[in-house]
Sequence to fold (358 residues):
Amino acid sequence: MKTKLGLLYGGKSAEHQVSLRTALAVIQALDYEKFDIFPIYITEDGEWIKGSQLKSVAQSVDELIFEQAESQLGTQLSSTLFQTEDGQDNLDVIFPLLHGPNGEDGTVQGFLELLNIPYVGNGVLASSAGMDKVIMKNIFAQAGLEQVNYVSCIKRVWEQNNQRIYDDVEDKIGYPCFVKPANLGSSVGISKCTNRDELDQAFQEAFQFDRKVIIEEGVVAREVEIAVLGNDDPKCSIAGEIVPKKDFYDYKAKYEDNDTALIIPAEINESEYAKLSEMAVTAFKALDCSGLVRADFFLTKDGKALINEVNTMPGFTPISMFPLLWNHTGLKYPELIERLVQLAIERHEEKQSIKYTF
Fold:
């Protein structure tokens, strides 16, 4: 029996285009002898549109973008979106290929939980905590993970007295520093600052994407990443290093320019890898993750390891680090997808054994 797999992509997020690229890459890698594939597109306005079962491999993201008039299969946010076209069967597993708010932040995961449908990846708590960089870093601090200095600010406080906020940043963090939207990924809205004018511009940029920003200390360090896979017994891939040719690994470097060197495996020694992999698993468990995360670190010249963040739904584009790391570890892309589906089913079955009455 084939697995009826629903792919959920797009989304009301600044990372909409990233999600489309991820979905295309997954569709092109799936084994159609093992999976029946059902696309579900979320528009940039938040409308859910169900497409017909895919009979052949899509060649471009344009084929994955549906209009309401094109689909009679479902545009309402209901359980019918997760059924076969004849409505006779439920889909076996949903793969949320969503990045950023309204998808990676626990909202969609909560909806799927209410419908009691198996889904790939992290649950509500891990997704929401992993999306909010401030909450995530607070949890990491509680877990004893070393990280750079950081402060946060909400838009209302900044609007009331931005100069006081800038004074606080300069006092506690200093320059260079990075200003980021708290609830976004893919380096959207991130700025590097070396003076107050740049800091002011960075706050204005970041607040376009979120009501809360995080300001982090800039460090001179290598950027090393590890992919984590599993549920209660997670395993780590080999490490990879990102060497951006620009000041930092921004959106264009990730998805448009292809102008960044990805060194796999990273040139680190055994003790450094052991430390990073231990920290990656600690972070995974601290957030109660399941399925997958990509853990990102800074490694200083003196060998000090600092966790930067984890991504609970890392990209699956052809140049994305997560699948590349597992590919070099020995798990090919199609096998990786199958393993993630298996982990989703295992986690769902475990939840079915929980008593909800007393």
In short: The mean pLDDT is 91. The chain has three domains: 3-119, 149-217, 220-350. The chain is about 35% helix and 25% strand.
